[in-house]
Task: inverse folding
C-alpha cells in the first residue's frame, strides 16, 4: 500500500524537475510564424542581433524584425526568395538583397521601420563590407564579381575592379591597403583609391587587361600573415573543410575535429583535438559547426550538437550545452542568451541556460501555478531516480 505524501513533498519534487530544466536551458521565447511549405531538408534562414532587435530572414522569403524583450514583430519585408544570407548592419540601417520583378537588387533599409532608403547599383553584397568615412569598400555582384568602393551619400561607385569568383572571399582591410582575392587562392594588394600595388611576388596574372602581382595562399590572418598549405597540413587542416573568423587580435580556424586559435605573427594560442577534448557518442562528419562570438580571452563555438564556451587564455572549458533536441540551423550568442533557428520547425527560439533571479522566479511561479491547477500525482519511484540522475548530470556539466 502506498504511503500518503504531503503536498509540500510533491511540490518539492515537481519544482526540482522544473529547475533542472531551467538551469540547463530554459526556453524563454518561440516565434509562431506560419510556413506553408516548410521542410527541414534544404531549410534556409539566418539571424543577426542588433541592439534591441533580431533580424530574422525566414523560410517564407521574408525578413522580420523581432523585438528582443517583447518578442513581437516590429515590421517585415518580403525579400522574394529564401536565403542563408545574413543582413549586413550599418549604424541604424542594414543592407539586404531583394528580388523585384525577378531581378535581384541590394538595398539599404531603416533598421527601426524596415523602410527602404535606397537601392544600390549592384545586385548583392558578397562579403562583410568595410566603412571608411562615407565610403563602403566591399565585394559585390554587379555583372560579375567585383571589388568596389561605393560612396554612401552620393550613391555611386567610385571605382571597381573585376575579380570574378574572388568576390566570394573576404578581403583584409588594413590601414593603408586592401588585400583581396582574384580567385584560385591568388591574392593581390590595392590601395583605397583603387590603384594596384606591387608586391615581392614574381607571379603575375591579368584582371581584364591589367597585369597585377599576386601571391598564392588560402587566406590571411587578422594581422595580414599568410596561411599556407604547408601550415594547414602541419596543423591538421589540409584536405578538410574548415571555417575561419578573425578579430583584431586573433584568427580562429574550426574544422570537424580541430580548433586552432592564432595570435599575432601566427603564434599558436590554442589547438584542440575536438574528438578527444569533447568526445560525443555519435560523431557526425556532416554536422553543423560554427565559430560564434569571441572576446579577448574566450570563444563561443558550436560543435557536434553542443554549444561550447572556451577560455583559451587559461585553456579551460567554461560551458558545454547540449542543443541536440533543437536541431539548430544557425546560432547567435548574446551574454547568457542563446538565439537559434531550429531545423525542426524553422522557428526562432530564445534560450537562457543561466537564468537571472527574475527569470528563475517567474518560471518557479509558473510551476507552482501549474501544480495548483493539476496537482502532481504521487511520485513514481522511477521518476524520482530519473530526476536525481538528471540533477547529478547537470552538476557534472557545470563543474
Result:
Amino acid at each position: 500500500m502506498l504511503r500518503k505524501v504531503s503536498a509540500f513533498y510533491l511540490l518539492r519534487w515537481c519544482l526540482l524537475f522544473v529547475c533542472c530544466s531551467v538551469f540547463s536551458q530554459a526556453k524563454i521565447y518561440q516565434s509562431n510564424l506560419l510556413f506553408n511549405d516548410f521542410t527541414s531538408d534544404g531549410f534556409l534562414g539566418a539571424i543577426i542581433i542588433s541592439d534591441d532587435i533580431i533580424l530574422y530572414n525566414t523560410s517564407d522569403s521574408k525578413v522580420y524584425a523581432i523585438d528582443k524583450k517583447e518578442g513581437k514583430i516590429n515590421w517585415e519585408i518580403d525579400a522574394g526568395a529564401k536565403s542563408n544570407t545574413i543582413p549586413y548592419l550599418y549604424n541604424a540601417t542594414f543592407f539586404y538583397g531583394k528580388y523585384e520583378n525577378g531581378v535581384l537588387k541590394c538595398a539599404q533599409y531603416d533598421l527601426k521601420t524596415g523602410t527602404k532608403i535606397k537601392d544600390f547599383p549592384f545586385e548583392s553584397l558578397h562579403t562583410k563590407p568595410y566603412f571608411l568615412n562615407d565610403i563602403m569598400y566591399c565585394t559585390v555582384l554587379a555583372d560579375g564579381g567585383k571589388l568596389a568602393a561605393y560612396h554612401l551619400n552620393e550613391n555611386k561607385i567610385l571605382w571597381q575592379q573585376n575579380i570574378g569568383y574572388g568576390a566570394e572571399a573576404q578581403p583584409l582591410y588594413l590601414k593603408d591597403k586592401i588585400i583581396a582575392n582574384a580567385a584560385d587562392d591568388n591574392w593581390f594588394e590595392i590601395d583605397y583609391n583603387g590603384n594596384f600595388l606591387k608586391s615581392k611576388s614574381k607571379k603575375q596574372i591579368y584582371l581584364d587587361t591589367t597585369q597585377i602581382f599576386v601571391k598564392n595562399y588560402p587566406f590571411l590572418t587578422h594581422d595580414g600573415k599568410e596561411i599556407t598549405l604547408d601550415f594547414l597540413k602541419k596543423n591538421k587542416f589540409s584536405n578538410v573543410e574548415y571555417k575561419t573568423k578573425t578579430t583584431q587580435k586573433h584568427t580562429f580556424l574550426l574544422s570537424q575535429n580541430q580548433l586552432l586559435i592564432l595570435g599575432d605573427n601566427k603564434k599558436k594560442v590554442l589547438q584542440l583535438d575536438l574528438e578527444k577534448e569533447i568526445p560525443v557518442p555519435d560523431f557526425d562528419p556532416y554536422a553543423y559547426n560554427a565559430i560564434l562570438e569571441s572576446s579577448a580571452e574566450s570563444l563561443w563555438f558550436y560543435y557536434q550538437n553542443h554549444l561550447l564556451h572556451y577560455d583559451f587564455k587559461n585553456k579551460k572549458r567554461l560551458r558545454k550545452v547540449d542543443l541536440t533536441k533543437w536541431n539548430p540551423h544557425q546560432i547567435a550568442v548574446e551574454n547568457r542568451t542563446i538565439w537559434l533557428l531550429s531545423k525542426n520547425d524553422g522557428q526562432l527560439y530564445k534560450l537562457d541556460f543561466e537564468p537571472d533571479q527574475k527569470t528563475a522566479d517567474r518560471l518557479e511561479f509558473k510551476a507552482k501555478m501549474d501544480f495548483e491547477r493539476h496537482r502532481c500525482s504521487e511520485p513514481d519511484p522511477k521518476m524520482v531516480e530519473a530526476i536525481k540522475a538528471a540533477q547529478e548530470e547537470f552538476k557534472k556539466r557545470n563543474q
Observations:
- Residues 291 and 301 are 5 Å apart (CA to CA).
- The chain has five helices and 33 strands.
- The longest helix spans residues 357-374.
